[in-house]
Amino acid sequence: MIKTLIPPPGPPRTLALAQLISRTGDGAYYVTAALFFTTVVGLSPAELGLGLTVAWTVALVLGVPLGHLADRRGVRGTAVFFFCCAAVAVGSYLFVRSFPLFVLSASLYAVGQRSGSAAQQALLAGVVPKEQLTRVRAFLQASYNAGLSVGAALGGIVLLFDAREAYLAAFALDSAGFVVAALVLWRVPAVAPTPAAAKGEKTQTVFKDRPYVAASLLNLVLVLHVPLIDVALPLWIVGHTEAPAWVLSVMFVLNTLAVVVFQVRVARGVSDLAGAARYVVRGGLLLGAGCVVFAFSGSGGSAWSAILLLITAAAVQTLGEMVQMAGTWEISFGLAPDGKHGEYQAFFGSGLTVAEIVGPLALTGMLVYWGWPGWLLLGALFAAAGFAMIPVVRWGERRLAERLVTAEGGGETPVPDALRKDTPAPDRKDTPAPDASGPDVPGELARS
Fold first, then answer.
1. How confident is the model at residue 233 (pLDDT cuts 50, 70, 90)?
2. What are the backbone angles phi and psi of residue 111, rounded to the nearest 5°?
3. What is residue 156's predicted lDDT score, i.e. its pLDDT?
4. Mean pLDDT of all residues belonging to the chain
5. Euclidean distance between CA atoms 261 and 234, whole angstroms
6. 263-299 burial: b if 16+ Cβ within 10 Å, else e
7. Model confidence pTM above 0.85
8. Neighbour tally for 192: CB within 10 Å
9. Which terminus in the chain has less CB density within 10 A, N or C?
10. Which among 146, 115, 177, 119 has a CA at the least distance from the CA of 7?
11. Which residues fall within 8 angstroms of residue 14, CB to CB, at 6 or more apart?
12. Are 315 and 351 in contact (CB under 8 A)?
C-alpha cells in the first residue's frame, strides 16, 4: 500500500515533494491565521473577511495575465518566483499591525500561492508525458492532502499554546516551506518558454476558447464541494441536526485520509478526454447523492442516526470528489493548446477561487436558511454539471481538430501533440517512464 503512494522517480517525485512541503506550512497557517489576526493583531471578524475577499479577488483578476506571463518567461522560473512571493507575504504577517497592511500582505500571498500553483501545473504538463498527466496529478493531490493534514496537526499544537510566539512560529514554518518548495522545484527540468507571437499573427487566448471556458464554468459548479465543508456544513450540523459538532472533524479526517490513500488508484481509470468526461458524470452523480443523504441528516431522530447519515454522506461525497477531480484534471490539460498551459491552468483554477469567494454566502443561504430543499437543489446542480461536461468536451475536441487543420494549412495556433498523428511524441529523456513492475496505480480548511 505504501508503494502505491510514492510517485515515479524523476520530475513526478520532485513535484510531489514540493507540493508536500509547501502544503505542510499552509496547513499550519490555515488552522491558526483567523485566531491570530483577530486575537493578536486585533482585526475584527468583518475586517478579516473583507481583507481575504479583496486578496482572493486580486488573485482572481491577475491569474490569467500572470499565467500568460509564465508561458512567455518559463513556467519553472515563474513558479519559483511566485512561491518566493508567497514566502515573503507570510513572513510579512509577523509585522502586520493594521488592516491596510493586512490587505496588502494577504493579496501578495493570494497572488503568489495561486499563480505559483498554476505555473506548477504548467510545469507538470511540460515535463510529464501527456498520457501520464492525470496519474501524476493524482500523486500531487495525495501529497497536497498529506501536507495539509500534517500542517493542521502542527497548527493544532499552536492553538494549544495560544501564544503570540507560537502563532509566529506557524507563520515562519509556512514561509520557510514555500522557500524550500521553490528550491525543490528548481531541480525540475526547465520547460522552454513560448515565443512571442509575430506582428500580425493570430493567437489563441483562453477567453476566446469557448469550449474551455464552458468546461471551466462547469468545474466551478462542481468544486462548490470545497467551501461546503468549511462553512455550510458546520452551520448545518449545529442548526439542523442532532449530531454533536465534533462529527465535523471526523468527516474532515475521513476526507483527507481517503484522498491520500485512494486518489491515485481512482485516477487510473482516466486515459483520454471521453473517459474523463464520463468520470465527471459519475463524480457529479456521487456529489449529488451525498447531498441527498445530507438532507436526510436533518430529518430528526437520534444523535447517532444523524452521525451515521453525516458520515455516510461525507464518504459518498469524498468518493465523488476524487472521481470528479480525476476527470477534470484530464480535461483541463487535454483541451489546452501546447505552450499555453500557464494561461489555461490559471483560468481553469480560477473556478476554485470564485467558489471560495461566493460559495460561503451562496451555500449558507441555500442550505442553512432554506434547509433540505437547498440540499436537493445543490445535488441537482452537481449532477447537471457532470452530465453537461460530455457535450462540452466533445465540442472542445472538435475545436482542437479544427486547430490542427488550421495549423497544417499554415496557421499559427498551437495544438496538442497528441492530435498530430504524423508527428512523433516529444522526446522527454528527463522523465523516465514508470516501470511496469513499479507501484500499482490505484480532493480546505484545504485551499489550493
1. confident
2. -65, -45
3. 85
4. 85
5. 25
6. bbbbbebbeebeebbbbbbbbbbbbbbbbbbbbbbbe
7. no
8. 9
9. N
10. 146
11. 184, 185, 187, 188
12. no
